[in-house]
Amino acid sequence: MQSRKLRVLLRHRGAVAGMTLIAGVILGALLVTLFTPHDPGRVIQGKDAEDPSGSHWLGTDTFGRDILTRLALAAWRSLLIGLSAVAFSATLGTLIGGVSGYFGGWADGITMRVIDIMMAFPRILLAILIATLIGKGMDTVIIAVGITGIPTFARQIRGSVLAIREMEFVPASRALGSSPWRILFVHVLPNALGPIIVLATLGIGGAVLEAAGLSFLGLGVETDTPEWGAMLFDGRKIFRISPWLAVFSGAAITLTVLAFNLFGDGLRDALDPRTKP
Predict the structure, then answer these.
(1) Coil, strand, or helix at residue 218?
(2) Residue whose C-alpha is closest to residue 114's, from 151, 144, 147
(3) Cβ distance 9 to 270 under 8 Å?
(4) Alpha carbon of 73 to those of 30, 78, 99, 187: distances in Å?
(5) Concatenated DSSP letters of 161-198
(6) 113-129 pLDDT, tens per residue?
(7) Are 102 and 166 in contact (CB under 8 A)?
(8) What is the spatial distance between Cα 63 and Cα 66, in angstroms, rounded to a whole number?
(9) Can you list the domains of the chain with their CATH numbers?
(10) Angle at 98 between CA 93 and CA 102, to 5 degrees
(11) How many C-beta atoms lie closer than 10 Å to residue 50's C-beta?
């Protein structure tokens, strides 16, 4: 079964392209971080907003700092934010949706109404509200983006649990004396994680984009911290005289989001039992 899923994944052109892009971003960021001769935080007078050259392959920003070096450091930060935010939302969303779907009753009704209210707000607006209340910082971005992703995971896992709890092995486990919590965490939730894995993969790209949006608006990471959204904002101010900062930071966001979306689509097909190898 596992080999069938792997064959489907490797034959999916989009998934292969996505994995290649993700590997390229990680490898490129690693090589630049290890071998760059430039200090990402050093301000160089007289070298502000330079075009790409032999000494600065992607040019410099408004303070004369090397764009390539800062893009590489921003890659680690953006990927960490995306992975952490999705892990946060997937964990809480799975717990909320699993408990709500399995036990049902009035608690399920109240929980789903709260989830509906959260989903009524556009995610970026909800993230802006949370970031405004908490304050700037990388931890704030992770929490804000993570909270906005909880409703999607909760609804997905609840739907899966509602279907799984009606299968024959659940009453059998109950008849053997297993407690409801043991049945939920040992038997039900492990069988509902397939769609969550796909949703989490697709969610990383969205989390990176949402985090970049917060930083672009000045609600994300601290000032002067290398981050794609903040770099895009800085590039906007000098776009007419030197578009490189905005172009390269925007391209990094676009390629990363595209990569995770392509990989997520391929993973969804691989985990679908109806897909032929």
Answers:
(1) coil
(2) 151
(3) yes
(4) 9, 9, 39, 42
(5) HHHHTTSTHHHHHHHTT--HHHIIIIIIGGGGHHHHHH
(6) 999 999 988 899 999 99
(7) no
(8) 9
(9) 2-41+49-271 (1.10.3720.10)
(10) 155
(11) 19
